[in-house]
# Entry
Amino acid sequence: MKTMRNTNGVAVMMLVLVVSMIAAFMAIAWQSRILLGVYRNKALSDIIAVSYHGESKANDILGKFLGDYPGAFTYNFETPWEDLGDGTQLKVEGKLIDNKETLNITAKRTYASTQYQVTRETETFSAEASDAEIVFSLDCTGSMAAAACADTNICNYQPPGSPFYAITRMDKLKEALIVFLDKLEALPGHEKIKIGLSVFTLKSDWMYTSYAADGTPTGQAIKPDNAISSDIPAIKSAVNNFLGRSGEEHSMACKKILTFTNVGGGLIFAHDYLKTRKPLGKKQIEILVTDGWSNQRTPHAGCSQNIFCPGDAIYCSGYGYTCPVPLPNCQMHGWEFTACALASTQQQWQPISFASDPWPVGVRDPEVDMYTVGVYSDPPNYINSAFTNFSNKYFQNDEAFQLPVILSDIFDEILESFTVINVQRLVPSPIR
# Structure
């Protein structure tokens, strides 16, 4: 009897012990579940916070990286961890290897991290083949002798004994070309960018490295398929020596191309040259500078009406073309020719001397970038619209005094178009 009671007592104690252990395990499991939920919430909160602060800071750095801040970063560098004030820490690493800039931006909190990588590489420096051909179409008419600005203390006066204003439009065009060429020469690998210089009035032609006294070319044409095209000092010498203080007879490069303004003809001259080349993988760019709108045109089958309409009837014979009789309003035809030459083969231009439904398309290769500069005030709406709608970028200013700044800006635009930007979010690695 006593033995049975003892046995029952032991059994009860064991049952109580087992129940207590189960209860303890259940309590621990429940507490662990609560703690796990807390940590999950903290991790989720940290992920949201670190992503927000990481992206905010990355966007700020990216703005400097892609904006006009050429000296924003001095490579190579690594910043210490920066406390953003809410538990988020951030570090930036920058490297420059073979003209490839790389920024690694890392943000972390206790339970989360995020990382961004931003890279930029200038193709001009790394491509093995020639990267670009740039052809200038330069107005070489007599109006380039006009004062470069209205200020009578700077430009708009004639020094004693001089037939020219103190600073002419052609003076500033030459200065602007030198600025452009200086910036190009300072670039590593600049020899991979080929330069062509063409001039236009009624006719168009290349600039050359030498001329006879009457303006007959005797040297090498400055065009992208000639060796001279990457010899920047030689090109600058031609600009200084063969563009004078005005166009036409006052510039050796322009004596043989007649007179009046044929913007469309200058553009077609560059188009036709680039069209015959089309080197694989090479960017092609045209830059037009003019101080007026067309008052004449030359024939071109792709631009209706396909007629010769010069600014003066004296050119109707002896120059290889036949004029319509009677001679129509050549300014209207000149405007149409300009619009047709500016517009690409994927863009329609508006005819004004004839009816067409639908409107005809232009003749420019859409893969050729077009930058245009007009030095004039109050251009006709038709001309202004054509330049605005059909150029990659159109610069218009009343005064040629701004030409050096404008061509410098165009250079920067072109250089930016060569640049490849890559931004990616990386899978974060463990941070210690």
About this structure: The helical segments are 2-66, 123-126, 169-185, 232-242, 263-277, 330-342, 381-390, 403-417. The first helix runs from residue 2 to 66.
